[in-house]
Amino acid sequence: MKCVKCGSNLTIDDKFCSYCGSANVYAVQHRKDMQHFREDYYQTKRNVIERSGRKVSRIAKGTIIAGLVVLCFFILLASANAYRISDWVKRAELKKDTNIHKNNLDKLEADRDFFGLASYYQINELYLSDDLREYETIANLSYYYLFIYDYTHQVLNSEKYPYMSTEDLTEYIGDYIKMCYDGFEFDEYRQEQYSETHMAAIQDLRDELETFIHVYLKVPKEDIEKFQQLSAGKIQLVIERSLDDAENEY
Amino acid sequence: MMLKTNIDKLMNIVIVCLCVVMLICSLIFINMYMEAFTDYHYRSADDYIWYINDKKYSEMTIQMYLSKHVANPPEDLKECIAVAEYYKNASYYKMYSEVGENDKAKKYLSLMDENRKAVGSLSFAIEDINEELEIDSGKK
Fold first, then answer.
1. Could you tell me which residues are beta bridge partners of residue A9?
2. Per-residue pLDDT tens digits for B83-123
3. Which of A112, A191, A240, B29 has the fewest CB atoms within 10 Å, measured from its CB?
4. Any keyword Membrane (chain B) (predicted)?
5. ipTM score above 0.85
6. What are the helix (H) ranges across chain A?
């Protein structure tokens, strides 16, 4: 470029002509243009950042919403299955301690501590374990026996339990005795499922229960022998009649 | 521009709402899960004393069997458990004595002796139990 006044050569960096000292109009214009371009550039940059930032923010929020929806769905699903999940955890814990429980149950069974066995099985929720299924029958029968024991003593001490009528109690006893006799019935298939040890324990439980019914509910032994064929209602009638007879005799 | 701002606000509201829903659902799940592990089986000495006061010894015995006991029960709980066990053993002693199965009756009699030593300050319950079960206390 040349100076508009003297025509000498100038560069873009020269603010004034080194020969005549007049201002370099090209340089002034150039600085103005550069300033404008710079502002334009920064404005465009700001706009791009803002636009892309908003887009990124929306994508992030959308992802968070989608994630939360999925999370809520799974938590709802877990809540609906909370008991199943807890059972699953319990089963896993029981699996670890199977041998300990098996030994304890064997000892209780060998000692013929039927109430202890029923209580151990129930309190430790061993019914959840598939590995301890072989104890289910003896444990359930023992549990029914525990209730027969309780209700029988309530019948015999009815003055201490005014909120329970003797008829209700004998009905419960009849129901539980029926459940026990149903459990004593072993067809060939079930016999194969139980070891001789369990079968012997179940037989001893039956003998003990029949002795208990005979002594405390005053049912004659010949009537107890018929219990297997009787319904719960008929067992209740036999018990009520036996208790009446014993009271009249007394 | 207005629409864009509204969409942003709406998204924020949705996020807050979902967070609240998630929190509530989590609390429901934790509550239900913990409930499944709650121990309803424990009975304290005070629970047993209630049965002793009402002389409901058979019910006390059943409660003992349906309860989970701590590994090292305190002395007062031990005494209550001994009373409950005494009732059970005494009822079996009576049962086998009446049908003439003396070996079994003897076994329960010795268990009763052990329980009697453990009842401590609740020894008055022994007399009540013997009376209820019509057991001749002179035999022991």
1. A2
2. 999 999 999 999 999 999 999 999 999 999 999 999 888 98
3. A191
4. yes
5. no
6. 25-80, 82-96, 98-110, 114-123, 136-156, 166-184, 188-193, 196-216, 221-224, 232-249
